[in-house]
Write a structure and sequence with these properties.
- The chain has helices at about 15-35, 70-80, 150-160, 185-205, 250-260; strands spanning about 5-10, 40, 65, 85-90, 95-105, 105-115, 135, 140-145, 165-170, 205-210, 210, 215, 220, 225-230, 235, 245-250.
- The protein has 5 helices and 16 strands.
- The radius of gyration is 17 Å and the shape is globular.
- The longest helix has 17 residues, at about 15-35.
- β14 and β15 form a beta hairpin.
- It is an alpha/beta fold.
- Strands 1, 2, 3, 4, 5, 6, 11 and 16 form an 8-stranded mixed sheet that branches. A 6-stranded mixed sheet has the order 7-8-9-10-14-15, covered by helices on one side. It has a two-stranded antiparallel ribbon with strand order 12-13.
């Protein structure tokens, strides 16, 4: 496929869907001018995230959108020739899901419903039930949302299903129980980077990690968007401020190089692993 330019965004989003769409349009426009073909926007880019994980207010939850909602259709139209991943609160009957879609101007290419839920989120969302990859014009992609990437099995499942790129969409906050005075010193700041690098390296695939910035209610978000190579090396990043991390790489060639001697997926010994 050759050289691919990947962008991962750090940006702030809230309850105002018109504002969020304007910000999505601006981010897509900036990415397009930079030559980006795959853009990963944060979790909850349409409607914002929960304001307080400890005590979610049922009257202050993000607006729930169906897959046919006009705001999602507009985001797909804005994507046009680009492949864009973004998060939103999905409505399915009486249930809400923390979901992500991958779109182009042709519509939705793939969807993921967040499986793993941190304390408090279950009061607002129903958990998803699995992980799936899908083909796109820029390669085979799998998506993870927030806490999903804490669990190695999530990324491994997608890698075994042929994912070349993991799109990790987050609204990842600073520590709720032990917030550090400086964001760079926060425990969650270190873990966020660690998980991104580990999930890429252990599966020898490319990872594009987006995140929210700023604050919403009692939540303060880390930013730290990045693109990680299949050796676990950070190729581009934004740190804590809003921005776009952009990296160029030949995805298939880099994966082949990483697996040339030690191929982690081929060397698995599943019969030796105990399950719960």
């Amino acid at each position: 496929m050759g050289l691919l330019r990947i962008g991962a965004a750090a940006a702030s989003f809230g309850r105002d869907l018109a504002f969020d769409l304007d910000r999505i349009a601006a981010l897509i426009g900036n990415a397009r001018r930079s030559g980006v073909s795959l853009l990963v926007l944060p979790d909850a880019a349409l409607g914002g995230y929960i304001q307080d994980l400890r005590r979610p207010d049922p009257d202050a939850l993000p607006p729930a959108l169906t897959l046919e909602d006009a705001h999602l259709r507009k985001a797909a139209t804005l994507a046009s020739e680009m492949v864009v991943c973004l998060g939103f609160c999905e409505a399915d009957g009486d249930r809400r899901y923390n979901s992500a879609v991958c779109v182009t101007g042709d519509g939705i290419l793939g969807r993921h419903r967040k499986v793993h839920q941190p304390a408090g989120e279950a009061a607002a969302y129903t958990a998803g039930e699995g992980f799936n990859t899908f083909d796109t014009p820029v390669g085979r992609i799998g998506m993870l949302i927030d806490y999903d990437k804490t669990f190695p099995e999530s990324a491994r499942t997608l890698a075994l299903d042929g994912a070349e790129i993991l799109a990790c969409l987050s609204a990842w906050p600073t520590s709720i129980t032990n917030r550090a005075p400086k964001m760079a010193q926060d425990r969650q700041s270190r873990l966020f980077d660690l998980y991104d690098q580990a999930r890429a390296a252990e599966n020898q695939i490319v990872l594009a990690s987006s995140n929210q910035t700023g604050a919403l209610g009692r939540m303060r978000f880390l930013g730290q968007a990045k693109v990680v190579g299949p050796g676990g090396d950070i190729l581009a990043r934004t740190w804590s401020k809003a921005g776009l991390a952009v990296a160029d790489l030949d995805v298939q060639a880099e994966i082949a190089r990483a697996r040339l001697v030690l191929d982690h997926l081929d060397d698995l010994r599943p019969d030796a692993y105990r399950s719960r």
